[in-house]
Amino acid sequence: MTGSDSRPGTSTLTCGPITLDHEHRILYRDDVEHKLTPKESSLLFTFLRHRGQVLTRQYLMKEVWETDFIADTRTLEVHVHWLRAKIERDLRRPDLLHTVRGVGYVFRPREPASNDV
Questions:
Q1: CA 35, CA 40: separation in Å to the nearest integer?
Q2: d(Cα 2, Cα 34) in Å, to the nearest integer?
Q3: pLDDT digits (tens, 9 = 90+) for 69-93
Q4: Are 18 and 86 within 8 A, CB to CB?
Q5: Kind of pairing between the strands at 18-21 and 26-29
Q6: Contact, 39 vs 65, CB < 8 A?
Q7: Strand partners, 33
Q8: Is 25 helix (H, G, I), strand (E, B) or coil?
Q9: Do the beta carbons of residue 109 and residue 16 sit within 8 Å?
Q10: What does the radius of gyration of the chain's CA atoms come to, in whole angstroms?
Q11: Domains recognised in the chain with CATH numbers
Q12: Residue 12 backbone phi and psi in degrees, to 5
């Protein structure tokens, strides 16, 4: 993960094929611009800051929604689905944001397989 602006406190992060301008809530994927909702932007910003780390549902709810409540809510799953629709090339085969069953999610760009090139 690299920031396109190296000043402390920058809100622009780049990882693989995506760049997030968190302050303006704009996502760039393959030169296509997507406007994000405040929660989508915060969720993606959290994933990018913790690239390669498995983030639990509880951690994400606390970090993005500022709540400890995770029972009976589909809020996180719905927002992850909306975010995937904007960052993934194929929703059936995510290459950036992966589900870790029973735990949460991990943002880890998949290395292209030799037959993907």
A1: 9
A2: 20
A3: 877 679 999 999 999 999 999 999 9
A4: no
A5: antiparallel
A6: yes
A7: 28
A8: coil
A9: yes
A10: 14
A11: 12-102 (1.10.10.10)
A12: -110, 125
Strand-pair category, 104-107 with 97-100: antiparallel
Cα–Cα distance between 54 and 10 in angstroms, integer? Answer: 24
Please choose, from the candidates 60, 65, 58, the residue with its C-alpha nearest in 3D space to the C-alpha of residue 97.
Answer: 60
pTM greater than 0.90 (yes/no): no
Per-residue model confidence as pLDDT tens for the chain (117 residues): 444 443 345 689 999 899 999 999 999 998 899 999 999 999 999 999 999 999 999 999 999 999 988 776 799 999 999 999 999 999 999 999 999 999 999 999 876 555 554
Asked if 87 contacts 43 with a C-beta cutoff of 8 angstroms, the reply is: no
Other Cβ atoms within 10 Å of 83 Cβ, number: 24
Report DSSP state, residue 71.
T
Other CB atoms within 10 A of residue 75 CB: 15
| The pair of three-digit structure tokens given for residue 113, joined into one six-digit string | 């397989």
